[in-house]
Specification:
Helix content is 24%, strand content 30%. By secondary structure, the chain is an alpha+beta fold. A hairpin with a 3-residue loop joins β2 and β3.
Amino acid sequence: MKRLGFGVVALALSATTVPAHAADAKCGMTAVEIVTKFSQLFFIEKKWREAFLTYVAEDYTQHNPMAEDGRAAALRHLGPVFDANPGLKVDIKRIFGDETHVAVHYHSVMQPGTRGFAAVDMFRVKDCRIVEHWDVIQAVPEKSANPHPMF
């Protein structure tokens, strides 16, 4: 099973809204709205190339140690990942953020019938574009030491 080098996201129905004054003057959207729209294209519509070209800065900084900086590097990486995982399903649990930083918590299943991963993507948004990305990814275990769900 290939692991997605970018913990990526889908549309969040429970996105936390930031104050109207936090909207970016250029595009009229908040950072949360930008990341939510990116997520809709990326996972729900599976238009990964369009999502990156529309919402990710060309020179964005990538903090995932398995991925290179820059939009072009991401595009080179994503095609084979999506091709190898046509059954990819992402279930967004929550999106929240402030004027510049947005976190997305979700359950990603790369191959149907597997337990998948719990993940959090963190983005920094500037001038209507995602300019920086971090992620934390953890396999969903069969058993838990406590009764609390990961989501």
